[in-house]
Amino acid sequence: MDKITNTVVSQNRSLKILIRMPAFNEGQNTSASVNKSKKYADGVIVYYDGSTDDTSELAKTADATVIKSSKNTGYGSAILALFQAAREWNADIIDTLVLMVYISP
Questions:
Q1: Residue 51 to residues 13, 18, 56: CA-CA distances in angstroms?
Q2: Kind and range of the H or E element at 94?
Q3: Is the CB of residue 53 less than 8 Å from the CB of residue 25?
Q4: Which domains does the chain possess?
Q5: Less Cβ crowding at N or C end of the chain, within 10 Å?
Q6: Alpha-carbon torsion 66, 38, 53, 49, what sign?
């Protein structure tokens, strides 16, 4: 499959597409998920929810933006933080991928 163009034209401007990934001890899935997601989006943000593995380092190595929590705050808190990040990023379109099982974007 050809690389999908990340630009959607609406009212003479490009829309920013952001993929959000809440993650808790998902190191084994992080790199592949971030790398594949970058083909379809302008940015990827991983919420590192107090993990004890290498999720954060793998996400950074794959060029994702990482938001860190020092303790596990749960899925709801992760989603709220990711919504705030999407607003700050001025994203027009957001998608959330769960890293528990690798999902092809």
A1: 38, 22, 8
A2: strand 93-96
A3: yes
A4: 13-96 (3.40.50.1100)
A5: N
A6: positive
Tokens of 10: 């609406």
Calpha distance 1→73 (Å, rounded): 38
Provide the token pair at 21.
């990934």
Q: What φ, ψ does residue 52 adopt, rounded to 5°?
A: -110, 10
pTM of structure: 0.79
Q: Which residues of 59-95 are buried (b: 16+ CB within 10 A; e: fewer)?
A: bbebebebbebeeebeeeebeebbeebbeebebeebe
Based on its alpha-carbon atoms, the radius of gyration of the chain, rounded to whole angstroms, reads 14
At 40-66, the pLDDT tens digits run: 999 999 999 888 899 899 999 999 999
Is 38 in contact with 30 (CB distance < 8 Å)? no
Measure the CA–CA gap between 68 and 48, rounded to whole angstroms: 5
User: What DSSP state is assigned to residue 4?
Assistant: P
Match 């597409």 to its residue by tokens: 17
